[in-house]
Amino acid sequence: MDSTRQNKFSKLILKEMADIFSREGKNYYGNAFVTVTEVKVTPDLSQARIYLSMFKEKNPKALLETIRIHTREIRGVLGNRIRNQVRIVPELQFFIDETLDYAEKIDNLMRNIVIPPEDPGEKPSL
Questions:
Q1: How many domains are there within the chain?
Q2: Which of 2, 41, 76, 88 is most buried, with most CB under 10 Å away?
């Protein structure tokens, strides 16, 4: 369970990273639609795990590698934005958030379920 301090720090990083990716993302990865879905911070606040959703991207792993190449630059921009609020800018680790893909897969499975009609002559079992 995360502490209140971790939660506040995560929300700050999430807000700033979302803004960085929406405003300056083209400098790092082109025209892809990338959103920050979640940020998890270690208890010592030294590392931030940033989960990214890449909507309708054909090759999300290649895009993630491109973002990872620019991690140092992104961390610098983040540091400039939050330098008056934190003592140490955390190391950034980027991951693909696959929850939307998982939800879509479950949705497709649910749509394709075929339930046979109940036989009217059959007695219900208790």
A1: 1
A2: 41
Overall pTM surpassing 0.85 (yes/no): no
Q: Quote the domain boundaries for residue 47.
A: 4-99
Number of other CB atoms surrounding residue 59 within 10 Å: 11
Q: Is residue 51 part of a domain?
A: yes
pLDDT digits (tens, 9 = 90+) for 83-92: 899 888 999 9
- Contact (CB, 8 A) for 80 and 123: no
Is residue 116, in this structure, part of any structural domain at all? no
Torsion-angle region of residue 30: left (phi > 0), alpha (psi -120 to 50) or beta? Answer: left
Angstrom CA distances, 14 to 29, 39, 78, 83, 125, stand at: 19, 6, 10, 15, 52
Strand 91-96: give its sheet, edge to edge. Answer: 34-41, 47-54, 91-96
